[in-house]
Amino acid sequence: MSQTILIVDDEREVVDLLKLYIENEGYNVLEAFDGQEALELVRKRDIHLIVLDIMMPACDGLQVVKELRQALSVPVIFLSARVQDHDKILGLNLGADDYMTKPFNPLEVVARIQAQLRRYQYMHAESAAVSEVVEIGGLLLDKAGCQLHKNGQLVPLTSIEYKLLLHFMENPGRVFTKRQLLDSVWQQWFGDDNTLLVYISKLRDKIEDEPRKPVYLTTIRGLGYRFEKRC
């Protein structure tokens, strides 16, 4: 069965252009022209990835991601005219998996969609093959359900956060350089090192009691990062 991509943008020309290229790759495409319409579609339809504008009427893209991440881990790619670094960091911090700026090359959008879908499929296929959990300290990562529990409480994760945390927790005590993490977790990388820093910060916010004084995910100055072994 073909996968379904939801395009959300209040510019019909953008939606029509993306739809043409995405359908040409064999995907089903759904359209929404504001955030509220997008959320209604997500509740009713089985959607595999969302390409999402930020500045829209009714409910903007940032609010859409906030609501989505309360229950779903489906990949989200922001496609926005906001080009400043702080806009990108905000979008990623809210739970987006990728961020592209307008004007854009539709072929690159398709490539990023395919990369995100491969990553998401790999993550779920890998977790379906094993039913074990990884537990360190108060953190329990359920590989079958792709879920994190901290001190017994469910902590929502995006697909990239899950893969990054799994990589760390399966290799406690090992130091990873930034490049090793990008190669292992992202595999096909379009961004820069700053995006990795964003995800490290997001993970710390979710797993640490005091993110500014991490006890799990520590920085090894001049080398990279290490997930500490804890009882």
Task: Supply database-style keywords.
231 residues, 5-stranded parallel sheet, 2 domains, WH-like_DNA-bd_sf, transcription cis-regulatory region binding, OmpR/PhoB-type_DNA-bd, two-component regulatory system, 21% strand, Rossmann fold, phosphoprotein, globular, alpha/beta, Arc Repressor Mutant, subunit A
The amount of beta strand, in percent, is: 15-25%
Tally of contiguous helical segments: 8
Quick one: how many beta strands? 12
CATH fold field value of the largest domain: Rossmann fold
**Structural class by helix and strand composition:** alpha/beta
Q: Assign an overall shape.
A: globular
* Straight-line N-to-C gap: 45 Å
What is the helix fraction of residues, given as a range? 40-55%
CATH superfamily of the largest domain, called what? Response regulator
Descriptive overview:
This is DNA-binding response regulator, OmpR family, contains REC and winged-helix (WHTH) domain. There is one protein chain. This protein has 231 residues and is of the alpha/beta class. The protein folds into two domains: 121 residues, Rossmann fold; 95 residues, Arc Repressor Mutant, subunit A (Orthogonal Bundle). It is 43% helix and 21% strand. It contains eight helices and twelve strands. The strands form three sheets. Strands 2-1-3-4-5 form a five-stranded parallel sheet, with helices on both faces. Helix 1 crosses helix 5, helix 2 runs parallel beside helix 3 and helix 6 packs across helix 7. It starts with a strand and ends with a strand. The mean pLDDT is 87.
